[in-house]
Amino acid sequence: MERIKILILEDSKEEAQIVENIVSKHYDVVGVATNYNEAVAFYHLHKPDLAILDVFIEGEREGTRFATYINENRAIPILFLTSAKDKISFTAAKSANPHSYLLKPIDPFGIKFTIELAFEKFVNGVGQLSTKEEAVLKVNEELFIKKKDSLFKISKNDVCYIEVDDKYCHVYTKDAQFLVQKTLKSFAEEFKDIFIQTHRRYLINRNQIERIDTADYNIILKNKMTVPLSQRHKKEVLEIFTILK
């Protein structure tokens, strides 16, 4: 589990420091670039989850140029830093199809909602994060889980199992637990390549299975957690795995 990583491109040291100070309270700032080449280097080195870009760098549209580079390589959500009074910057930013905007001066209280909106637009999931206190969003092969004022990134491979609890689901990793407002059915459909249902209340990561106890109808995971195996799902589970007696 880790906080989402953010890359900043801003040529003004004062503005960059302000943005970094605000953003770093809830997210990990992995680089503050002052020019296009530096931004490209940070992008490949740190593999950020989101980029915050000023449109003009030293008078040139390096922000929109870098946004194009991102979209042509490993696409991630993009936020442009713009001024409400600067129509030229706003028009230039709009042409690059960003996922959201940050207006200067930056509002510390609104920035987390802007970042959440950018992720939602990136995967066409508007409302999945910003309208819920305990929410989860699937971005490529990872889960972005909202907890209080921060977003945490979890690889699907690190999830041990998921347990439904009424309208919520508990997501268990080896060292953390999250409560999210999402159905077990949705999880099963989105991650059907590695998750299998073992019980009406449980989904497990098949790569986390250590052994299957067919006598007691339990599945023991690699982290020694135990998950029930129901009679209804027993046949399906055993068809996937070779049981050594």
Describe this protein's structure.
With 245 residues, the protein is α+β, with helices and mostly antiparallel strands. It is 29% helix and 34% strand. It has two domains: 121 residues, 3-Layer(aba) Sandwich (Rossmann fold); 85 residues, LytTr DNA-binding domain (OB fold (Dihydrolipoamide Acetyltransferase, E2P)). The chain has seven helices and 17 strands. Strands 3-2-4-5-6 form a five-stranded parallel β-sheet, with helices on both faces. A hairpin with a 2-residue loop joins strand 13 and strand 14. The model has no long low-confidence stretch (mean pLDDT 86).
Number of strands: 17
What are the segments in which pLDDT stays under 50 over at least 5 consecutive residues? none
The largest sheet is:
5 strands, parallel
The percent range for helix content is 25-40%
**What is the structural class?**
alpha+beta
- Oligomer state equals single chain
CATH architecture descriptor name of the largest domain: 3-Layer(aba) Sandwich
Span of the ends, CA to CA: 36 Å
Radius of gyration: 21 Å
Order of helices and strands: EEHEHEHEHEHEEEEEEHEEEEEH
Number of domains: 2
Which percent band covers the strand fraction?
25-35%
